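The records we work with from here on pair a chain with its fold. Each token is a code from a learned vocabulary of local backbone shapes. A record is reproduced here so that you can trace the correspondence yourselves:

_____
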Amino acid sequence: MTRLLKVKVYIILLTCVSGCTFLPLPLTYMSSAKSGIDAVQMLRGEQTINDHIISRLTGKICKTSDWIAGQDFCKEIYKPAPVTVEELPPLD
């Protein structure tokens, strides 16, 4: 192959890969299904799949629908103060 032809082939391959042209069909369907599930979850005001992942990583409750509504994306998880044994009511 000539050098010019190699460059053209590389450019075509890079364009196809960057546009997800070479994704196998099952991955394309899975991507579409995830987008549909995320859309339904957002309409319900619940966490999307990505929100669940970010929440696990940060230890907070993160919701895209809150961010779109102008609220904070992540909120602290409410944890009540621990109760000591002395504070418990007596057992009768």
DSSP finds four helices and two strands in the chain. The chain has a mean pLDDT of 81.
